[in-house]
Each structure stands twice: as C-alpha cells, then as structure tokens.
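Changelog note: in this version the structure field was regenerated for every chain. One regenerated record is shown below for reference.
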Amino acid sequence: MTGEIDLINATAFHDAVRGAISRCPRLIIDLTQVNFMGSAAVATLYTYLDNLIAVLVTRNTAIARALSTAGFPMLITVPTTHETTLDRACGHARHQG
C-alpha cells in the first residue's frame, strides 16, 4: 500500500487484505509507504488481527503513532531510509578507529 487509506478507498483496502488472507492465512502488512490511515483502515487491521503476523510502519510517523496509541499489538517500526543510511555511516565511522 502507498499513499492514503481513507474513507474513499477503505473498502478497497479491506477487500485487498481479505483477498490476501484467502490466499495466505498469515500476513505481514507493509504500511511503510502509507502517509495517512483513517479509522476504517485501523478497523480492518483489527478485523483480521488473528491473521496478521505483523504490520510494518515507518518510525516516527503519524501511522506509527496512531497504531501505537490504539494499542495495536503486532506493530513493527522500521527506520526511514535516511535513518538507516545515517546509522550505517555512524557505525562505520566508529569502527574505523
């Protein structure tokens, strides 16, 4: 998923998750490219909670905060590409001596 999951496309999101579960009953949903998610999308995640292994979100985003505040249990935050690059550069510099 990319962009926004709002009232306009919440049904499509729900149908996509349901369809994916019909093919594979255990899912990891990647929301790292989603920049807005309405309550209907959160409801979809809770509807299929038993089928989810995890939901990936980008650290320090509105999506991460909203799902964390909602107490979503299978949330995994991942760093942004910028953070990953910076961490690697800093780690590399530390090991250079």
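Spot check on this record: The CA atoms of residues 1 and 79 lie 17 Å apart. The two ends are 42 Å apart (CA to CA).
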